[in-house]
Amino acid sequence: METSKQISADLKSVLLEKHLNFELLNTYKGVPFVCKAILLEVEEGTACFRLSADSPFAWKTAQKTLILSEGLLEPIEANLLFFDRQTNTLRAGNFGYAGSKLSNRKELRVEPEGTIEVYLEADEGQKTASLADLSMRGAGIRAKGDLPASLIQGKELILYLRLPEGEVRLSGKIRNIARSANERRISVEFSGVAPDKTPIIRYIMRRRAEIIAEMRRISLKE
Predict the structure, then answer these.
(1) Residue 217 resides in a domain
(2) Which of 9, 110, 182, 202 allows an S-S link to 165, with CB 3.0 to 4.6 Å?
(3) Is 92 within a domain?
(4) 150-177 burial, b if ≥16 CB within 10 A, otherwise e?
């Protein structure tokens, strides 16, 4: 049985056993939100949920969600197919097992507003780039054009983040490089101990508050 059909069968079993209380885990610009939901029905490949009245998430902007329940052996990832604001119900489908995505979604990782410059340095290679997202453990970085030969996966490097709260110098390691036509997205995990991470902490908490306020404004307009 293919994965999506197997998960549909599992959800039907959960529904029959009256395990109706679920949580839907989502992120908006990196900030995680958990919404309480009740499972209403399961059809082939889809499931319908009713969200709690105080659900904070802006569902119009969402494409995927993680489905959590004590009745499930492991978290499920699903596409959001339809949301009805009048009844506060949504339909999800195209199920798959979430695996490590659960821990990734739980991490507070904020996306910047506007451009924040990042300077990368490894051996003789140097590159000026921009911040894609930031957490206490690492950063996503966007770089235009080709990278210096020394900036490769697994490479130790030095980052200079020019945050509004102050400039920070950090050591890190390149965990992954995703390539597109004219851009590289570099995932960097911080290593070592920074002299002072206070600007990072202040920036993340400020952006978190801004993102939550923005998400609530969008929710009120839906």
Answers:
(1) no
(2) 202
(3) yes
(4) ebeeebebebebebeeeebebebbbeeb
Q: What are phi and psi of 100, to 5 degrees?
A: -75, -10
Query: Do 77 and 28 reside in the same domain of the chain?
Result: yes
- Report pLDDT digits (tens) over 119-134: 999 887 788 999 999 9
Domain boundary among the residues 106, 133, 157 is at 106
- Amino acid symbol at 117: E
21-55 pLDDT per residue, tens: 899 988 888 888 888 999 999 988 899 999 988 77
Same domain membership, residue 70 and residue 156: no
Statement: residue 188 has pLDDT above 50 = yes
pLDDT at 205: 92
- pLDDT attached to residue 1: 45
Domain range for 144 is 117-210
SS3 204: helix
The answer on 174 and 86 residing in a single domain is no
Contacts of 152 (CB under 8 A, 6+ apart): 174, 177
Determine the Cα–Cα distance for residues 80 and 133; give it in Å rounded to an integer.
24
Pairing of strands 166-179, 64-68: unpaired
- Averaged over 159-185, what is the pLDDT? 89
Residue 111 lies in a domain: no
